Amino acid sequence: MMTLDILLLSAAAVSTVVILFAVVILGDVQQHQHQRAHVNARRIK
Question: Transmembrane ranges (predicted)?
Answer without folding.
Answer: 6-26
